[in-house]
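Internal ticket - ligand job 496, 4-nitrophenyl beta-D-glucopyranoside:
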Amino acid sequence: MHISAKDLAALIPADFTLGVATAAFQIEGALTEDGRGPAGWDVFAAKPGSIVEDQSPAVACDHYHRMPQDVALMKQLGVDSYRFSLSWSRIQPTGSGPVNPAGLAFYDRLLDELLANGISPMLTLYHWDTPLALDDAGGWMNRDTAYRLGEFAAIAAEAYGDRVARWCTINEPATVTTNGYTLGLHSPGEALMLNAFPTVHHQLLGHGLALQALRAAGVPGEIGMTNVYSPMVPKTINPLDKISASLMDLAQNRVYADPVLTGKYPDLVRAAKFFSSFEHPDEDMAIISQPLDFYGLNYYMPTKVAVGPGEGAVPASMAEAMGSDLSAAGSGGTPFHVETWPEADITSYGWPVKPEYMKVALKEMSERYPNLPPVIITEGGASFEDIIVRDKSTNTAFIPDERRLKYLSDHIQAALEATGPGGEAESIDLRGYYVWSLLDNFEWSAGYKQPFGLLHVNFETLERTPKASYFWFQELIEERNLVTVAETAVAQAMEP
Ligand code: PNW
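stdout (structure tokens):
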């Protein structure tokens, strides 16, 4: 069971944003239309074996052609805000130089449509779809890509600055480095292991340069960036499990969050060989750690870590370089591995559903970073295979996605309780929660096999069908609106 929408609504503070999120490459399709240049992901996805069943992102949700309908579905849902990303190569086909007016115009129409429907736009500049020309020049291994992102931010500021309420410079640099450059599971498909460290630094620098460009342009919206955060939980009290978990924490969480929030890489990272052999100006750290208006956190799940060889995100050589006394697992492997929670609900991706760790994540963040700016959960959600129930007499479809609905309800509740009065992360000023995702979409290497949407998408007809979770979120927003109306009325009545 989960808390009722009415009781959950009562926990929501004033001015808390309830939103939905997507990313350009996962929903738009229309990859060769109106002058869009290729992205690295176009080429990666076309290589046999990269994507489950070699599924293609060419059409995806066809959002490029169905944008007004999708905004209408958000309007019906009642959300305060929509988080979307720009396709960089739609606007700058080669990632540098002249802009493509037809590409710019698409997001003009989107922003106008959102505002006409009372939905506040949150714009992510970079959500993984690097222009191919930049990837060909080394992608995030090349420091120049960071400067190109800064330039792209200036273009976006000039074109859209008057209408964007919230800016997110980059989304989850951890996933780009781990999947794209360390393991080769995402574009550009590099398996550089420890040699991928420059991609961490260059993405963070790109964030800093983008932030600088937005500030220089004087955009009125709030500016932040988004990191994914997964609490790392040792399987047992065995010290080797604990060391394993803290190494994962360094490599997946802290190496991305510390520089942004404290201006410094963690000491253990700075002591590693791969760090000292990577030359970069000290001044970068000031650019990376400029003050943010909000910190975006994507929370999906905790990670249970145990000692013993496995395939994972942290190569054995990295563990060694960080001074760990774990015995190495051999090249390409790790000296430790991720385990699952047998007692937890498991999503179709194999991810454990552990809402109590949302509280742990927020508590750890508040303890680590005492000067944390306001936090927005910029993504959270779950993939489950949906069952479509058809009512034969009316020919209407119903999708009873109770598990997704419970995931969302439990996680929003945990986040509100942790940051509410007496909560374990009370010092965090939590400003919103964005559901991943508005609609089922192209889940990167998993293709269309991992549906996260509140809306079901039939990828043959492209028809959208609201799931039970859509109606639940709608009800939550309605209940929240009633609370807001009542509070305003009370406040007015109390005025002298
Ligand atoms: C995010 N983890 O990726 C991305 O921002 C989205 O584009 C993606 O569709 C969504 O989550 C669902 O996968 C993640 O290991 C990658 O905890 C990794 C993790 C979480 C989210």
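Auto-summary: The chain has a mean pLDDT of 94. Residues 158 and 343 are 51 Å apart (CA to CA).
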